[in-house]
Structures are given as C-alpha cells and as structure tokens.
Amino acid sequence: MKCNPLNLDKYINKGPKVFFIYGSEIILRNQSKEKILNYLSSEGFEEILNVFTDDISDLDGLLMQNTAGSLFANKQCIVINHLNGKTPESFKNIHKYIDEHYSNALIVMSCAEKISPSASWIKELDKNCTFVTCAKLKSFEEKIWLKSRLNFLEENEKKKYIENIYNLNQGNLIAQQNEINLLELQNINGKAGGSDVNNAEYIPFDLEDMIIKKDKKNTFKILHSIRDNNSHYGPLITWVLGNLLNACVYALSSNNIKGSLQISGVFNNKINQYEKFIKSTSPARLIKNQKKIVNLDLACKGIIKKDFWKEIDYCLIDLLN
C-alpha cells in the first residue's frame, strides 16, 4: 500500500501498523512520523523503542523479539532511523516478521530518496506495509500542504498567508515551516496581523543562535525564561533543536558541508557559525543528542513519563560542553 504525506490520513489505519517512510523531503518525513506516532498513541501504544541502524548488529533478533511482544504486555512500537548511506541489507528481511496478524507497530524512517518497486523484498513488504513517499511536492501540492499547516488561522485569513509564504519560499518547505511557526507564535498571542512576534522576553528561535555560538550562559537564560513564562513553547523548542541537530548530522555525512546546510534550510548568514559549531562538537555527541529528540517530543506531549524541562537541560549541557 502506497500513499504520500497529503493523503496519509486515509491509509494510516488500514492493515498492520507497519510504515516505511522515505523520500527527499526531510520535513515531510519527520511530519509523517509525528502523525503516525500520534495515531499510535491514541491506539494505546505506550512503549516507543527508537533504534538507529548504526547501533543494530542484529535487526533480525530485534524484530523477532518485537513480534513476540513486550515483556510488560504493553503495545510496543519500534522506530528504525536510517539516517544516511545505502539501505542496510538487514532491511531486506523485515517482511519475514510482518504479516496481517502483526499486533505491534513498526516505523522505518529511511533517508533513501527512492525505492525500487520491483525489488523482491519491497514486493513482499508491500503486502503488509504502508509506504509513505515524501518526494518533492508539485506547486499545487505545496499549497495544499501549506493550507493543512495553517489550521490555526481563520479560513478568511488562510488564502492571504498561503500566497505570501508560498511566493517567498517556493520549493523550500523548511523555510515555509519556519514562517508558519512564527505566524503561529503571533496567533497564540492574538496578533496574527501584527509585526511583533509576542510580548515575551524570548522566543524559541532565539535559542538557535546561542547554541551554535556555544554561549552556555545565554542559552540557559533564554531556555529558563521560556520555561518560567511561556512553557507552552515546549513543542517549538523541540522542533528548533531537532532542526538544528538534523542539519548538523546530515552535514557530517556530506562532502559539501555548506551545501548540505543550505539544503537543510539554514540561512546563509548562519552557515559559517554552523560550520564552527559542527567542527567544535564531536560527531558522536551530535548524533547522540539527535537520537534524544523523539523522546523529548514524546515527553513534551506527556506520552512518556519524563520531565521535559530537565531532559532538555541535560541535552543542552551535553551539547555545549
């Protein structure tokens, strides 16, 4: 079964809860995963196991154990994060552990831009899996996507903002999402038509500059001010930090760091500072903290029982040391 992020809602509850997300648009891959995780949470999946392909020596063993279910009888979801490189050979065995009676959940996040529908393992997996293709959107699809992301606006306002955001950032979903986030901040404070973002001393976007400068004092000053005065910005903080770390990790695997940062949506005036940040931080530390983002998001939403603000503190302390 195949779908795309725009019609995922129609397929999300069809068949076994097995999803293979791939394609060139990073933001669509991440948003598709978030939508699926929210759906699984509503279906009672309490246990989320994040696995990164570099850490797996025995994917077959992990899937075999998952098929048998959790030791604590909780519904379990495995999220396999394939961040870079060729599709692992172990992926070709996934279909052996999945059938129409599979009771747990599996999400494969693949960095592959394309897959071969004629490959035997793809054909087998397709029998009990929903493939979510996150390819570059056509012009009319971009506007549909934009409209879906502007649900916090009144209908009579949407058209104006869709045209403005699209015309300024055509073909760049990350830049469009940045504009949407700013607009949502304005809307939260009842000033969607105004020029100021909000009355708060700081907003989550202020964190990015402090983190890449490794300015520990001001990073925590901003973070704790937001925590104490605007704690509803927790999801946006997670999004900002996730985007920053994703851009850095993808750049690490590229032969052209500047080009990779541009593709990830980093503004040109910040690229040099990002390069300094990447060079001054060990790859292992960047990857380790990137792996924490999903759990930070789940903690922020109350899906797992962890103190979101403590966890974000620990993450930033590690990154800035």
Automatic annotation (TrEMBL):
One of its GO terms (biological process) is DNA-templated DNA replication. The keyword Nucleotidyltransferase applies. Residues 20-134 form the DNA polymerase III delta N-terminal domain. Its EC number is 2.7.7.7. One of its GO terms (molecular function) is DNA-directed DNA polymerase activity. The keyword Nucleotidyltransferase applies. Belongs to the DNA polymerase HolA subunit family. It catalyses: DNA(n) + a 2'-deoxyribonucleoside 5'-triphosphate = DNA(n+1) + diphosphate. Pfam families: DNA_pol3_delta. GO terms for cellular component: DNA polymerase III complex. This is DNA polymerase III subunit delta. InterPro entries: DNA_pol3_clamp-load_cplx_C, DNA_pol3_delta_N, DNA_polIII_delta, P-loop_NTPase. Keywords: DNA replication, DNA-directed DNA polymerase, Nucleotidyltransferase, Transferase.
